[in-house]
Every structure is written in structure tokens, then in C-alpha cells.
Write a structure and sequence with these properties.
heterodimer; A: alpha/beta; Rossmann fold; 5-stranded mixed β-sheet; extended; B: mainly beta; Immunoglobulin-like
Chain lengths: 208, 120
């Protein structure tokens, strides 16, 4: 490289300085310790909030005895509509899956994937039955008619967000996790629960 | 009647000075403030193990604590459950505190609990 007029080229020096500085300023990527995460709160909903809401719901459902079947059998639970009425984009399964897993483990319910709000969760329940007309399949291994179980109970709910401006600098965001278990036969709610999570922080923090 | 009697028989009350129940552990950051007085366990009407722990906050200020319960089966194996995550509870200044929990499964026959101060 030619050095015109005795001046040193500036660009390579700047690039070198930037290359040395950037790694020092960038936070290091690390894994979250999901069992003992003591990091500060965020204004939006994170996995800790879904865990809290699910844990409180499950503990209350179990404590209430609502799933105690007098016939000593597991109830069949269908997942109905869980509405995300917040300003954030997330899959409500972040909440529902945790509740389902825990209720299934508790031995109180079986969750059906053949009936759900908006259609069956697992289409295979019906596709596998189309094999009844296919001679290539051993017919005893194909699901017969009248074997699917209708749900006894249905889980529905809503997640609501409310933003309140406290002053010029601070805002408050409230999240309501409202869940209901309904006995399908009667349409009566046998359990209802609400978990409220509140957060306060800078107006600059985004909660959507 | 028989069920109630059975529940009563299973209920155990243990008086504690500080925290003498080996199933309850206080973390260093609450040991000087919290004083566990009573640990009660029983089988509820669903056959689930239920615990109730009460004590006092000797400190002169309110703080948030949290507890983590490990539910154990009859062989001493821990049950994998969401209910073993850290759960916050309030401790008011110079007042009693109470915490209750129900096991997620009838297989739970014992428990271990640790209590610590919650950091924000």
C-alpha cells in the first residue's frame, strides 16, 4: 500500500480498534439456569411468568379436589380455547402445555387430542381410521368404531394485559391468567382460577 | 367418619425450636430472621400428602421469601413436578407466616423443603 504525503492510512487502524472493542462491549451469550434463574424481571411475559401461572393453577386444581372422580377413574380432559388477549405474540401452549403435563402426571386426567377447540389436535386420530378400507393393514390393529372417548371436562381461558401509565417515567403492566374447567355434560364450571402478575418499570421498556 | 379418623391419625404435628425438623431447611439468608414453629402433615380426602408449615418472622421488616419442595416417593425417589419450582410467599414484619402445599400425586409419601429470601 502506498503512503501518500507521509500520512498513515486511517481506515485499517480504526477497523482494528473496532474489532478489539466490539467483543468487549457485547454481552457474552450464556445458557439460562432454568432451575435457579435469579435474573431481573422483564416487562413482557417470559418463561418464568408462564411457569408461575401454570404452577399456581395446577396447585389450586389439585388442592380443590375438582378432578377427584368418585368412580376412581381418570377424567378425559379436552383443551378448549385459550385466548391471548395481550399485546404480545406468543403461543398459549407455553401455558397450557405445562398444565396438561402436570395434570396428566398427577394421574387425575387423560387429555384427549381427538377433540379440541378448532378441530382435533392430532389429525392422526382420524387418518389412522381411514385404514379400515385398506387391505394392506392387519385390520385388528386398526382402531375400531366407537373407541374414541368423549371429553368429560374442558379447559378454557384467557390471558389479559392492562397497561397503566404511572407517571412520565414509569408504567405498570398487569397480566391476568384466567382459567376454567367445565364439566361438558352439564356446562357447569367445576374449577376457576386467576393468577395476577404485576410489573412496574420504565416507560421505555416495551411490553408488546 | 372412617376417612376423617384415618386422616386425623395420619396427621402429625411436630413442635420445633428454630428449625429442628430435618425435612425443613432454612437458607443462610433467612436463618436469622425466620423461626419455624410447626410442621403438620396429613393425607387429604384425595389421598394426597398435604403439608402446612408455620413460624414467625423475627425481623422488623417485610420481605419476600420463596420455598422449594421436593416430593419423595416411598423409595425416596423425587417426583418430577412443576410444583417443585421455587414458590414465593410473603413474610410480614414481626408476624407469623404460613405456607401450605399439596403433593401432586398419591405416590408422594415424604418431602424436603428449603426456604430462602427471594431476590428481585
Amino acid at each position: 500500500m502506498k503512503n501518500h504525503g507521509g500520512k498513515r492510512p486511517l481506515m485499517p487502524v480504526l477497523a482494528l480498534v473496532a474489532a478489539l472493542l466490539v467483543p468487549a462491549c457485547t454481552p457474552k451469550t450464556r445458557n439460562i439456569d432454568m432451575d435457579n434463574d435469579r435474573a431481573g424481571a422483564v416487562m413482557g411475559l417470559d418463561y418464568r411468568d408462564f411457569e408461575t401461572a401454570a404452577r399456581e393453577a395446577v396447585a389450586d386444581i389439585i388442592r380443590s379436589g375438582a378432578l377427584d372422580n368418585p368412580q376412581n377413574k381418570r377424567y378425559v380432559l379436552a383443551i378448549s380455547r385459550i385466548v391471548n388477549d395481550t399485546m404480545q405474540h406468543f403461543d398459549t401452549d407455553e401455558l397450557v402445555k405445562k398444565i396438561r403435563v402436570e395434570l396428566l402426571r398427577s394421574g387425575r386426567v387423560n387429555v384427549t387430542t381427538a377433540v379440541a377447540a378448532g378441530g382435533p389436535e392430532d389429525q392422526m386420530n382420524f387418518q389412522a381410521r381411514e385404514l379400515r378400507t385398506n387391505d394392506e393393514f392387519k385390520q385388528e390393529s386398526v382402531a375400531g368404531k366407537g373407541e374414541l372417548l368423549a371429553p368429560d371436562l374442558s379447559l378454557s381461558g384467557k390471558i389479559i394485559q392492562r397497561d397503566i401509565r404511572l407517571n412520565k417515567k414509569e408504567q405498570q403492566v398487569e397480566y391476568y391468567f384466567q382459567l376454567t374447567i367445565t364439566r361438558v355434560k352439564t356446562g357447569l364450571a367445576i374449577w376457576e382460577g386467576e393468577t395476577l402478575l404485576g410489573k412496574r418499570g420504565s416507560n421505555k421498556a416495551v411490553s408488546w | 367418619m372412617k376417612k376423617t379418623l384415618c386422616c386425623l391419625l395420619l396427621a402429625t404435628t411436630i413442635g420445633l425450636g428454630g428449625c429442628l425438623d430435618s425435612r425443613v431447611r432454612l437458607s443462610n439468608n433467612v436463618e436469622s430472621d425466620l423461626n419455624v414453629k410447626k410442621v403438620v402433615t396429613k393425607r387429604n380426602h384425595d389421598g394426597l400428602l398435604e403439608i402446612h408449615i408455620s413460624g414467625e418472622n423475627d425481623a422488623s421488616k417485610y420481605f419476600k421469601s420463596e420455598y422449594r419442595i421436593v416430593w419423595l416417593d416411598s423409595d425416596g425417589f423425587p417426583l418430577d413436578t412443576l410444583l417443585s419450582k421455587w414458590t414465593p410467599f410473603p413474610v410480614y414484619e414481626g408476624a407469623e407466616f404460613h405456607l401450605s402445599a399439596v403433593a401432586p400425586h398419591p405416590r408422594a409419601t415424604d418431602f424436603r423443603i428449603i426456604i430462602r429470601k427471594k431476590e428481585d
